[in-house]
Design brief:
single chain, about 350 residues, alpha+beta, 11-stranded antiparallel β-sheet, two-stranded antiparallel ribbon, about 40% helix
Amino acid sequence: MPVNTTPLNPDSNTGLKCQDSNLSTKVDFLQLTFEFYSRQQYLEVLDDWAWLLNDEWAHDLERECYHGMKFDGSSRSARGAVAAANWTSETEGKIGTGWLSLPSGAIGDCDQSLLLAKISDFAWRYSGKVTRLDIALDDFDRSVGRAEISDAVEKGNYAGTKIASLISPKNRVKNQSQRGWCWYFGSPSSNKRVRVYDKNIESKGELNCIRWEAQFRDEVARKVMEGISEVLVSAPDEVAQYLSSVVVSALNFVERIAGKRLSRLSPLPWWTAFCDGLGKRVSLSVGAVKPVLARKVRWIGTQWQSTLAIIRELLNDTDYAAFWNEQLESGKKRLTASHRALIEVARMDFECMEFSSLTHVL
């Protein structure tokens, strides 16, 4: 395959360079949740991120806002980062919960090695959970472009998702090569989605490459981050290779043959050449979330506390005890085999200890 020899512009690229290639990779978008014990600690968390990202925050801590759910207050940074929080309550024994969104504009200039180490430490220190993680892989050789991808999609020679769509804005340009395009693989609601587009056009010449961008959410994002954390400890020099492997593992281009299973299909030659040297594919599959007793207890706490308080105010001690006994007897009759299995799992995992501690805050 002919290779476009347009020189890369490294001054505009802040990613990690893949070994012996004109590929670079980086985290391009990040969202996390975290816990804190006071309003002051929430502010300290944000100041810590501001120091790393060379950013500054403006706070609006008393006005409710919505970012997928309702929050008590929020903060915005000069670089476009957004944070929100539900405050702690000592009287109710609640731990504060926060949400942090770091777009490309906020983390694009940050040293990637420091950023990845920060995410890993943050998850441990503040019970942080990654809810979205976008990883970009930039091909400065432009070795694969729109033509190869479009041809593969037209013939059905792709795997990893059932949905593929091309977005090509009908902007008025004399030179058709300057018209933007973007291939999307996966649905917007999926936990795994890939975008491929000409970054040179999108960035108006600031970054001359074809960008492969994998977007991960929830369980898949956390699995990817766990893998990154392991590589940071065991083989820090291989982080760039691991990130690039994650991106190409989110998608596959194969030669479809009727009657053959996917695992027996051969990758298209140009895809093999592109992935060569990026390491073995990374499994991105996650199992179904197992029911956990402690999670059910937390749900009771958030959904029924106010209702139980009202009932307690209306009933005397005798009637309240009778009410609870009646509910418990009714519940016992409704227990199924799955409920019994849940109880056994909780006993084996010592979750009864966590259940006992949780009852103090219900």
